[in-house]
Amino acid sequence: MSASPFRPDSATDRLIMGLDVSSVSEAENLVKKTDGAVGIYKIGMELQFAGGLELARDLAADGRKIFLDVKLHDIDNTITRAVENVAKMGVAFATVHAYPKTMRAAVKAIREIDAGQLCLLGVTVLTSMNEQDLLDAGYVGPIPDLVEARACDAKTAGMGGIVCAASEAARLRKALGGDLVLITPGIRPVGHAAGDQQRVMTPGDAIRAGSDYLVVGRPLNQADDPRGVAQQITAEIEAAL
């Protein structure tokens, strides 16, 4: 099995905290509370539209690993130029939707500006979606089949990894080998509600299934003691490795 250059080094490195809050001040407070207990901070759309892009630049410049969850999908030239600008921000990870032309346009940007430090991630099927949601969107076939098809195309396109549900990780690890990293949202420690996620798994089970990185949002950012919860999650990750 070949190894991706984006594979994590430690249990802490594997934990991605979703800064799913509505203001930069809230996000900065969470970073302070969890500094050293979390490997990567994810900045998604909610925070991006409240100053999160500037925060991403600042945190990256300060040496923290940032996952910019932009989920880009547009015409080829727009994607290429946008990814070039994302790479210049110094973030470690960025997402595009796992459509064939979108992924290839994103990879083109990385190659044109030699930005090999940026791991491009293809978002396969959102973990908030179930089979009926897929049918309503006009897709035919089980979710795992669509996820695998998109993941295999991501590998062909030259992407760095994919975003998928942990329940699909074992199947994808077999199909992809170690060339792409698997990042799995919808992670819920024991005792935490699933919320609007449909395809969820505990941290330990996700690691055992083949996930490289785990995205944890609400169980961390809504916790009274986010550092303590982060440490519990990394201990569970360590035990599963």
From TrEMBL:
Primary enzyme class: lyase
Pfam families: OMPdecase (PF00215)
Recorded GO CC terms: cytosol
Gene Ontology molecular function, alphabetical: orotidine-5'-phosphate decarboxylase activity
Positions of transmembrane segments: none
SUPFAM superfamilies (UniProt xref): Ribulose-phoshate binding barrel (SSF51366)
Binding site for substrate: 20, 42, 69-78, 127, 188, 197, 217-218
Reactions accelerated catalytically: orotidine 5'-phosphate + H(+) = UMP + CO2
InterPro entries: Aldolase_TIM (IPR013785), OMPdecase (IPR014732), OMPdecase_AS (IPR018089), OMPdecase_bac (IPR047596), OMPdeCOase_dom (IPR001754), RibuloseP-bd_barrel (IPR011060)
This protein's pathway: Pyrimidine metabolism; UMP biosynthesis via de novo pathway; UMP from orotate: step 2/2
Top-level taxonomic group: Bacteria
PANTHER family registered for this protein in UniProt: OROTIDINE 5'-PHOSPHATE DECARBOXYLASE
Its biological purpose: Catalyzes the decarboxylation of orotidine 5'-monophosphate (OMP) to uridine 5'-monophosphate (UMP).
Complex formation: Homodimer.
Family annotation (HAMAP family): OMPdecase_type1_B
UniProt protein name: Orotidine 5'-phosphate decarboxylase
This protein's encoding gene: pyrF
